[in-house]
Structure formats: structure tokens, C-alpha cells
């Protein structure tokens, strides 16, 4: 029987995480006690929030401790069970981290049905990133029919769903992404009205062109210069759900605040953060609604799978921060 | 009969306004035509927003044109009337600018009663700054009994009212000001629970000391480093009414955005601008409520009067930006 390969946080990264920040260890595969399960990790979610968890800073979750297995959302298969609520062969969503095996009590695990959707989809559109898009747009963005939504990270796991829900709600949707292929994808495949390539287009000019009625909602996944550019073109009473700031997570000179934030004052606009864990009691109906949208073709999903297992964690995470992925980035174990 | 002394915007200031940015002119006192009034300016309001009106930038009001009389809120006396709605001797609130006389149609003017409150109070607590405090705190800040409110510019025209309304609503109120005398004033005279001197105290330590339950509402008049310090200690679901950023208005290197804005995300908090002109239909009941608070001693007002007339506009405005005033700063004509 093989060992349990694990990736542990060895140092708190400065700037972009590098290989010396992590330690690969192997341990004997643990044995479940009464009431416990042995889980074999099948898919690991790569998320921008991981970068924050590596910092020693107060946040909505405690930091990953040095020497601990790196935190990650996972889809695992039950391979041994001493818990009557779970059977061998069940698949579960959990937070088992960057490792091949884990022992769990069952608390916090959710079973997923591989016949209704592919396993990686439960880490994306029918998982945390889909729920982030759903609650962030609908509860913080408060879209009204005919309004204009701009979403950055448009081809990413959250952005692609934000834009599609925006279209379902009757809005004009303009994406922002960093590659022509991504822009083409969200317009041609996902039905966005337009997509701006922030690496090649003049942001101010492109926003004016594609948002002739101004911007009512900006779903911000990136922060930085794009947030500042959008702030110059928001409408009165605009809402900016603050989902992330991937452009700032690996900076070594501290976070750059939005210089144009006084546009919020002039436009009576709102910049508001949210954390998906606050909506746990509403996850079930939200997932149901999105599952219906998926099954009726109103919503499309996409995952990009990196193979190679636990050892590929850092290259996969780097892909995410370099904006190389389209759709939800998942590591297959 | 004397001439009409006026102060006009000559150049758009770079940084702090200086005397060469203004032009003092005199004209014959105009004569009202049928339906018009001749107004003699009695008090002129000094407001941080004036700095923004001097810039050639899109905002909630158009910029003051070069060569135009500088915009300002005013209390004037009707000295001649060809309009049956106004009698000689009436006092009116308006926006007649930095000049001694003006002709008006009556549109947008509001009569004020000098027997119910002193004339300068109608430019402050019973005028725009009082209304700014009232709607900003109650509609954007949404205070609940027992919550902690922090307000910067605590001894200024808006801040002093925010803090007192906070006390009326049963909150803990902590001010921030730049002089010991101001801090003593808001605590001893106005009933704030504490006041931090940002020039001499360690902001982070003082906020921790005086806000042991964290910060639920931060009423921001100043922006800059104080906003960043407060952001590190906000509570979950905190509200930050964005009223102004006086620390940034005269900068020559552009506005500094709040580096710690991602605290909004972690804390599901909200930074939201507002403009008092949006609440015009509700001004009357708000003024009534504040007048009752004033008459029953629940609310105290204070004005600081600069004498010397129109020629003293720039020194008075400089006092405001240097934080020399306590209470509402008003220029007597």
C-alpha cells in the first residue's frame, strides 16, 4: 500500500509563493477509528483565497500554521468507513487539504452525486465559486433588468458564473480578462455582451465603448488598476461587490488602495465585501437553482484540470495567479 | 451707495488654494427686475467641498467656471423685493456665493427665522452640515443601540453632530480630532465617550483602547491614514459612510486610496458614499427633529465666526483645511 503524500506550508511566502515555501512529506495512510472515515482525495480546488491563508494575518479563517498541511477544498472518495452515515464509494465535498488521504469525522462533509454533475463541477459551479458568484451578484450586486454589469476575471471560475447569472437576470454584461481567447470564450460561448482585454485594450476607452449607459454593478475579483478604471465610470447608486483582489495578493509593497475611491462619494455608490460562509444556510436552494440552470443550458460550466497529483500544487497555483486558466482550475490527484 | 465686492475663481488651484487663484472684483450693486430680489449676504459657509468645486472634474455639481463668482452657501437678507413671496427684511438660505450682494428669482431660496436660531446656525447644524450628519449617520451608518461609532473631524461642523446623534441613538461614540482642546470639547461639552488626538496618540493603540468592542460604524470625513487605521479594527458587517476626505483634497500627488480596503471583504463591511442633495424631500422633517433636539438640549451647536467680509474668504478657507476651527466655520459679511 502506498504512503500519503502531503504538501505542507513551510514558510510564509513573500510575494509569489515559491517551491521553498512548501514541504512535501509522506506519512503512513491513517486508519479511521470508530465514527471516522478514510478519504482518498480525488480533486483539489485551486483558489485565490489560498494566498491569504498563507499569511499570518487575522482574517475570516485562521492562517494555515507553519508545518501544517496546506488548506484546500476537496472532493474525496470514501475508501473506508467506521461511520454509518457514509459508505465506501461515496463522494464528499470537504476541506481536506493538499494531501492524498485524510481521516474525517464526517462533520462538515457534504455528499455529492457524480451522476448529476462531474466531480470537478462540485468544486466550481456547483461549489464554492458558483455560490460566490450567486450570492455576491444577487445579494450584494442587486442586479435589476436592463442594468450594466462589469465583471473582472471574466473567464475565471467566479467571473464566468457572475456574467451568466447577469444575463439570466436581463442585464448587459461586459467582462474583463487578460487574453483574447478568454474574451472570445465568454462572448461566444457564455453569451456576455462584450469582453475587454485589459492587457491590450485602453481600459477607459473600452469601458466607455461597451458600457454606453455607465456601470451599475462592478463585480471585482482583481482590484488594482482595473478597479480604479471602473470607478471612473460608475453610475449613481452603483454597487461594487468586493470578491477579491488577485492583482494585489502577491505584491511585496503592500496592497494598493483604490485611488479613485472618492467616486463612491460623488456617485453615492457602495463598495461592499462578502464572505460566502455567511450564506451556508442558503446553499441548498442556491445549488438547486444553479443545477436547474445548468440542466436547462442557461448556465454553462467549465473546469480546467491539472493532472499529476499533490506534487503539482505549486505549478497549478502559479497558473491561477498568472491568469492562465479558463474556468475553474482543479488539481486531479 | 457702496459697490458689490466679489471673489471670483481665477485659476484652478494646484494643492492648497493660494491668493493668486482668486480675483477680487467690484461691480455696481445690481437692480432686481420684476419677480426678482436683491439680497445682501450676511453669512457665508466655509465647506471642504469647496475645494472639489474648484477642480475641473465631473462631480455631483458642475465645477465653478474660471472667472465666475466662487460658489458658497449663504444666509442673506432681502434688501429689495420685486417678488411678492419675499419681503424686505426676510432672511434666506441660498447659494449666492462669495459676494456681498446678489439678485435672485427666489427659486431655491429658503426662508429662515432668526428668532428660532442664530443666523449662522442655519449654515451649520440646521443647515447642510447638520443634514449631512443626520442622513449620513442614520441612513448610511444605520446605528443600532450599543454599537460603537467612530467619527473623524469630530469637532468639525459635521462630526460634532454625528457624535451627538450617535449618543442620542444609544451608541458608544469615539471622536478623532487634531488638537487637545477639540478632544476635550467633544468629550466634556458634547458627551462623546472618548476622543483620540491623531497628531499625538498612536492611532491603532488608541482605537483598541477606546473601542474595546471594535468599530461598527466609521463616519469618515478625512480619508488617508486615519481611514486605513480604522479599517484594521472594524467589526463584521461594519458600515463606513463616506462623507469626505479632507486629508486628500489639497494633495498634489493624487488621492491615496485606502490600502486596507480588503478589510471590507474579510469583514463583510460596506464603504458607501452619499450626497445630501439626494435627501431634499426629507429635509423638513429632519430639520424639525434636530430643532427639537436643540431646544431640549440633547444637541448642542457651535459656530466659529470669521469677520472681515469677502476679502477674508481665503484665510478662512485655509483655517478649515488646516483644521483650526471648532464647530461650523462661517464668514460674516
How is this structure best described in words?
Two copies of one chain form a homodimer. Chain A has 333 residues and is an alpha/beta fold. Chain A has two domains: 4-124 and 301-332, Medium-chain alcohol dehydrogenases, catalytic domain (Quinone Oxidoreductase, Chain A, domain 1, Alpha-Beta Complex), CATH 3.90.180.10; 128-277, 3-Layer(aba) Sandwich (Rossmann fold). Chain A contains nine helices and 15 strands. The first copy, chain A, has helices at 49-53, 128-141, 159-168, 180-188, 203-210, 224-231, 263-266, 283-295, 313-321; strands at residues 4-9, 22-27, 37-45, 74-81, 91-94, 101-104, 110-112, 148-152, 172-177, 194-197, 215-219, 234-242, 270-273, 303-306, 328-332. In chain A, the strands form three sheets. In chain A, strands 3, 4, 5, 6, 7, 14 and 15 form a seven-stranded mixed beta sheet that branches. In chain A, strand 14 (303-306), helix 9 and strand 15 form a beta-alpha-beta unit. The radius of gyration of chain A is 20 Å and the shape is globular. The two termini of chain A are 16 Å apart. The mean pLDDT of chain A is 95. At the A-B interface, helix 7 and strand 13 of A face helix 7 and strand 13 of B.
Amino acid at each position: 500500500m502506498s504512503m500519503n503524500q502531503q504538501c505542507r506550508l513551510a514558510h510564509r511566502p513573500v510575494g509569489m509563493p515559491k517551491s521553498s515555501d512548501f514541504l512535501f512529506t509522506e506519512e503512513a495512510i491513517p486508519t479511521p477509528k470508530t465514527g471516522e472515515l478514510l478519504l482518498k482525495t480525488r480533486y483539489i480546488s485551486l483558489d485565490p483565497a489560498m494566498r491569504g491563508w498563507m499569511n499570518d494575518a487575522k482574517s475570516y479563517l485562521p492562517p494555515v500554521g507553519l508545518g501544517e498541511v496546506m488548506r484546500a477544498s476537496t472532493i474525496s472518495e470514501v475508501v473506508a468507513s467506521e461511520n454509518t452515515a457514509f459508505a465506501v464509494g461515496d463522494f464528499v465535498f470537504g476541506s481536506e487539504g493538499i494531501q492524498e488521504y485524510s481521516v474525517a469525522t464526517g462533520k462538515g462533509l457534504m455528499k455529492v452525486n457524480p451522476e448529476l454533475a462531474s466531480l470537478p463541477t462540485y468544486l466550481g459551479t456547483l461549489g464554492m465559486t458558483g455560490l460566490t458568484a450567486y450570492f455576491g451578484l444577487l445579494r450584494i450586486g442587486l442586479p435589476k433588468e436592463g442594468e450594466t454589469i462589469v465583471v473582472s476575471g471574466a473567464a475565471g471560475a467566479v467571473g464566468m458564473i457572475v456574467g451568466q447569472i447577469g444575463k439570466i437576470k436581463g442585464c448587459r454584461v461586459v467582462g474583463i480578462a487578460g487574453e483574447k481567447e478568454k474574451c472570445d470564450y465568454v462572448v461566444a460561448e457564455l453569451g456576455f455582451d462584450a469582453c475587454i482585454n485589459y492587457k491590450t485594450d485602453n481600459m477607459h476607452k473600452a469601458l466607455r465603448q461597451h458600457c454606453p449607459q455607465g456601470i451599475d454593478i462592478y463585480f471585482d475579483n482583481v482590484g488594482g488598476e482595473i478597479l480604479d478604471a471602473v470607478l471612473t465610470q460608475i453610475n449613481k447608486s452603483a454597487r461594487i461587490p468586493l470578491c477579491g483582489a488577485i492583482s494585489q495578493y502577491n505584491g511585496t509593497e503592500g496592497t494598493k488602495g483604490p485611488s479613485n475611491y472618492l467616486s463612491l462619494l460623488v456617485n453615492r455608490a457602495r463598495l461592499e465585501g462578502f464572505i460566502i460562509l455567511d450564506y451556508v444556510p442558503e446553499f441548498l436552494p442556491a445549488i438547486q437553482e444553479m443545477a436547474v440552470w445548468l440542466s436547462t443550458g442557461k448556465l454553462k460550466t467549465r473546469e480546467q484540470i491539472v493532472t499529476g497529483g499533490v506534487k503539482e500544487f505549486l505549478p497549478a497555483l502559479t497558473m491561477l495567479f498568472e491568469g492562465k486558466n479558463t474556468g475553474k482550475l482543479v488539481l486531479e490527484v
